[in-house]
Amino acid sequence: MLIKKPTEIASSEITDKRMYFNRRQFIESALGVASAAAVLPGLLLPGAAQAGTRLAGVRPGSTKAPFGTDEERTTYEDVTRYNNFYEFGVEKEDPALMSKNFRTKPWTVTVEGEVNKPAVYQLEDFIKPHTLEERIYRLRCVEAWSMVIPWVGIPLADIVKRFEPTSKAKYVEFTTLHDPAQMPGQRRAVLKWPYVEGLRIDEAMHPLAMLAVGLYGETLPNQNGAPLRLVVPWKYGFKNIKSIVKIRFLEKQPTTAWMAAGPSEYGFYANVNPEVNHPRWSQARERRIGEFLKRKTLMFNGYANQVGHMYAAMDLNKYF
Ligand SMILES: Nc1nc2c(c(=O)[nH]1)N[C@H]1C(S)=C(S)[C@@H](COP(=O)(O)O)O[C@H]1N2
Ligand SMILES: [Mo]
After folding, report:
1. What is the DSSP-derived secondary structure letter of residue 304?
2. Which residues constitute the domain of residue 208?
3. Global pTM?
4. Is 305 exposed, middle or buried (0-12, 13-18, 19+ CB in 10 A)?
5. Nearest CA to 164 among 117, 203, 110?
6. What are phi and psi of 181, to 5 degrees?
């Protein structure tokens, strides 16, 4: 009997997600097992989405652009079961399954480099001076799917100002936790670990950029980047680095994990741009997770009026 492993099931990128999960459930029940989840102790089945803890004192979100949208929100179920988080596996359902026991307490955030106030913080102290806000943003993955997610977090500009960057600080670099014991994906050289991302300082100061600590009013589920992740809605999903332990201010542009993995495919800027295709596929359209027909991808993911000026003098074919 030929047993299909989840990795051999038709790609979840091109198969409608509901069909994909139904198919997986069908295969699991046909086999009488629940694939990896059955043999690895302590893991949840896809049926049991991991919930967060309710966040208090959140300034409520708006449905008005640019800090909100009246587009239908992607369901909590889809937001928390269809993820990219290679530290927990490369399949879309892996992060929800494999991050269940990930420890996010205690958690420290190191701020260093070109700042007057470098520091190592416990996460609670890092967050404490700020008011949490809800913002409903589109997330557009480079793989041509998208979601609408009500994030809870802090404007990144507020955090940048608090640490007082020096005049040499031209870029901000973010680093994910490196802990192969907890993050099984890091035991394989899929990417150069730890995952690193970066922004130009003016991008980091842009009012749309935020550091998220929650979604749907609750703390971030592990698979979504608990306890702290970046959200830059005008850029492809991979800029939205998860489980951040370090923020470093730099004079020179950092090399990000994806630039190192494929410099001809992933640039530093990674602005959503329907006119510049990925070398292997078109970026003109996208599938909103939960919908059937594809929609047109908008310049800067629909945030062109807000962010376009930062790139006005740049050739976006070169600085992709
Ligand atoms: N550390 C880390 N951050 C990451 C990734 C990753 O693999 N590792 N994947 C990125 C990609 S490709 C996307 S599309 C988004 C997905 O975020 P979500 O799963 O919360 O929707 O996370 C980004 N952040
Ligand atoms: Mo992505």
Report:
1. H
2. 13-311
3. 0.86
4. exposed
5. 117
6. -65, -35
Residue 8 lies in a domain: no
What CATH number is given to the structural domain containing 279? 3.90.420.10
- How does pLDDT run across 253-276, given as a tens digit for each residue? 999 999 999 999 999 999 999 999
- 166 domain-assigned: yes
Q: How many domains does the chain fold into?
A: 1
CB of 241 shorter than 6 A to ligand 1: yes
Is the CB of 73 within 6 Å of ligand 1? no
Q: What digits encode the pLDDT tens for the residues 90-113?
A: 999 999 999 999 999 999 999 999
Ligand 1: nearest atom to the Cα of 149: 21
Q: Of the residues 75, 84, 288, which should be mutated to test ligand 1's pocket, given the most ligand atoms within 8 Å of the CB? A: 84
102 lines ligand 1 (CB under 6 A): no
- Rg (alpha carbons) of the chain, rounded to whole number: 19
269 Cα–ligand 2 center, Å: 14
In a domain, 317, yes or no: no
CA 227 – ligand 1 centroid, Å: 13
